[in-house]
């Protein structure tokens, strides 16, 4: 069997702060093949964004990758000099952020920024560059793209701005896109449109997509497989339908129980009791132990290794066995 497009093994990223070591990403492993979409879910602060940044070599001091491997088309990215990572970023692997302002420069027209992004990796005639820009803008749902090229970011609505940022990420037809909550700040109807467009893009281009979100509904509609993060760790992973219908980890179950559709009409949503632990002083065992309905003394003391069963994996001493009703 050929090597996966992206292979992440035991990735660990820490921030070395005055207050101590923040274990933001603590042993993430997954593979991704062309055309696959993986959802990365978890509560705020669970390490989703830092995982995405780590893949692209975008973690700045006081943070750094301290262990693990990220292989893209078989090439190890961890430890590559920044100059080489820049050659890969935007070209073979690109990132879309929650806030399009992270990508877009407010004082440059869209044409100018796209031209600069193209020039970073390819020499092209003006005519060829314009054709490429119009093509990607049209593909992400920007009407009248040739005319809109000469607009500034503020002349677009929020949804259209995010589409422009997405178009820039797509300019070089990357093999992998890491999308960090790109629709979270948008209206629900615009979210649904962009999700539909992302599905088409992945289907038509074979691009692999990592879709970072705290929203299980978007992940369920877009991603064939998913990973659930808790306190920097990947606590469960597998095909999305299987994980959501028969979670093995109690945290995944808790997330599902807190969805509106799971609540009895007229009742408050069930929240997972307790709060997420500080990543500065994680307990020795399972970080979810103190909130877990099945937590035992062993769970508090011994960190569970990941158990792989078929295409899915989970880190739990007392995994759930029954599918959800
Ligand atoms: N520069 C930094 N210095 C210290 N700690 C940091 C730094 N950046 C991030 N962290 C820590 O890393 C942890 C993971 O952050 P991350 O942004 O990946 O979470 P997230 O799951 O993406 O959350 P959200 O959904 O809110 O974006 C957080 O607890 C945060 O405190």
Automatic annotation (TrEMBL):
The keyword ATP-binding applies. One of its GO terms (biological process) is peptide transport. Keywords: ATP-binding, Cell membrane, Membrane, Nucleotide-binding, Transport. The keyword Lipid biosynthesis does not apply. It is a peripheral membrane protein. It comes from the Bacteria. GO terms for molecular function: ATP binding; ATP hydrolysis activity. GO terms for cellular component: plasma membrane. It holds the Pfam family oligo_HPY. Its main location: membrane. SUPFAM superfamilies: P-loop containing nucleoside triphosphate hydrolases. Belongs to the ABC transporter superfamily. This is ABC transporter ATP-binding protein. It comes from Teichococcus wenyumeiae.
